Recover the amino acids of this structure.
């Protein structure tokens, strides 16, 4: 079976600035993959191109063997690094919105997670705290039976106690045949759940390996190794 | 998916439109009361005349407020839901870009037609003396028809229908001009909104130039043939269709081929 993601010579420039530089990359199925790099390394740009929110300057990305489009959007569940929901809507309205547009959305799973977090479905988003809004978004994204979950900085804006809950939610709710691409610079919080690791620096891939391989070869944690690779 | 997109577009916008129309309804009732009770009469105390003037002024201002407010609201709604943070959700839905554009244009057109109808009815109610609302409506419709249809038109019913179609395409063209300008502004890395406004005035100027060229052409043609009328439905329909197609294609091209959500 073809990899879930294939990047071939993927390049993105903003004027003279190179955000992604000739990226060749394959991501395998049924893996939790950490896309790790410091701020401004190109993680979000790569993710946006995969979701069709940005157009590459050169090269292409294939999801399930297809260019980003309606078919790939049916199979990708994407959590952006910002709040992307209409603040005037109620939680229950947003849940129905997702159910209307995504055939793989599981209403029961969404309500189960909402009740466990004690989030009232009748509450309007604008009345929720920033952290709770992020949890609502995560619940919506993880309530789909997608082939690929792309989570851009899912734990960056929440307190350490909530991080554990979010990681637990991710690991216990995703479709087991699917892959998760998890972008973050908070390595120590996520390294225990990762199968594979991709290091990205100045828009180039500097390393792609399994988490186990790094631990065995380097005799150190991924967080420690990351700090060495990206030392200023 | 078009129906679902339209449903959610209506849900996101109906409250503002309702409030705007309620404001007009309240002002119409108040203005009507001052007219019916003859507050303008010299026999009434000065304070009554002052109240009447204030009510009529507020009524006129509320009309302008609705026109400008609804226009700004619909433009702001298109921008925020398409090219700001909410665009991340809209553009990752498994829907055709054509459906996104069509849903927004149809719902906006629906609200504008509703608001224009409410304003028209408000004026009819205010003008109608002794409660002759239907007679006033009929007279005003006759005036509008005689303005938009040239005297040498033989089939009036057809011309009325075509005038309505021309009005619709004119409305689509205006809405799509705004979506095209906002979309073009997104192509830049900086000052997106400022560029959108500049694009709008640039395109407006080009359209005016085309109108002048067309006017010169029609004037020359009409020396021999009076079929074309600068202000008739024929010209409105042709220009409405051409501009609608051009602005639609610009909006679609940027949204589908050049999307740049940074």
């Amino acid at each position: 079976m073809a990899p879930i993601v294939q990047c071939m010579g993927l390049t993105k420039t903003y004027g003279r600035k190179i955000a992604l530089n000739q990226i060749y990359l394959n991501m395998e199925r049924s893996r939790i993959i950490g896309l790790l790099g410091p701020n401004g390394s190109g993680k979000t740009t790569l993710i946006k191109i995969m979701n069709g929110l940005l157009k590459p300057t050169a090269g292409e990305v294939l999801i399930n063997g297809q260019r980003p489009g309606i078919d790939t959007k049916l199979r990708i569940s994407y959590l952006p690094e910002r709040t992307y929901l209409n603040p005037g809507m109620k939680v229950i309205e947003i849940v129905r919105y997702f159910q209307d547009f995504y055939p793989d959305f599981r209403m029961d799973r969404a309500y189960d997670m909402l009740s466990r977090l004690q989030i009232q479905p009748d509450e309007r988003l604008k009345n929720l705290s920033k952290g709770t809004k992020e949890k609502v978004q995560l619940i919506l994204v993880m309530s789909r039976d997608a082939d690929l979950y792309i989570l851009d900085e899912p734990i960056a804006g929440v307190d350490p106690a909530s991080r554990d809950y979010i990681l637990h939610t991710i690991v216990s709710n995703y479709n087991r045949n699917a892959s998760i691409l998890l972008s973050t610079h908070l390595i120590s919080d996520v390294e225990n759940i990762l199968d594979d690791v991709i290091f990205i620096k100045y828009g180039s891939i500097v390393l792609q390996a399994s988490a186990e391989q790094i631990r065995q070869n380097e005799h150190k944690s991924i967080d420690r190794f990351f700090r060495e690779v990206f030392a200023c | 998916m078009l129906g679902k997109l339209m449903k959610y577009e209506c849900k996101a916008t109906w409250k503002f439109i309702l409030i705007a129309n309620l404001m007009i309804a309240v002002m119409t009732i108040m203005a009507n009361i001052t007219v019916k009770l003859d507050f303008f009469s010299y026999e009434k105390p000065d304070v009554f005349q002052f109240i009447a003037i204030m009510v009529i002024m507020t009524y006129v201002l509320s009309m302008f407020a609705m026109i400008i407010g609804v226009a700004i609201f619909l433009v702001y709604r298109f921008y925020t839901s398409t090219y700001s943070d909410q665009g991340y959700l809209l553009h990752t839905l498994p829907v055709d870009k054509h459906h996104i554009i069509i849903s927004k244009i149809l719902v906006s057109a629906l609200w504008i037609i509703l608001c224009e109808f409410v304003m028209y009815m408000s004026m009819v109610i205010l003008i109608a003396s002794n409660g002759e609302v239907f007679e006033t409506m009929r007279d005003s419709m006759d005036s509008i028809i005689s303005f938009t249809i040239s005297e040498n038109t033989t089939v009036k019913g057809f011309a009325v229908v075509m005038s309505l179609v021309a009005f619709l395409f004119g409305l689509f063209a205006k809405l799509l001009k705004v979506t095209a300008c906002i979309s073009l502004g997104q192509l830049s890395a900086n000052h997106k909104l400022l560029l959108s406004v500049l694009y709008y005035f640039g395109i407006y100027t080009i359209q005016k130039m085309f109108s002048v060229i067309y006017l010169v052409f029609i004037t020359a043609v009409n020396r021999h043939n009076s079929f074309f009328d600068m202000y008739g439905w024929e010209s409105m329909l042709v220009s409405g269709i051409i501009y609608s197609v051009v602005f639609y294609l610009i909006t679609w091209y940027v949204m589908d081929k050049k999307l740049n959500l940074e």
Observations:
- The mean pLDDT of chain A is 89.
- The radius of gyration of chain A is 18 Å.
- Residues 160-173 of chain A form the longest helix (14 residues).
- Chain A touches chain B through 27 residues (CB under 8 Å).
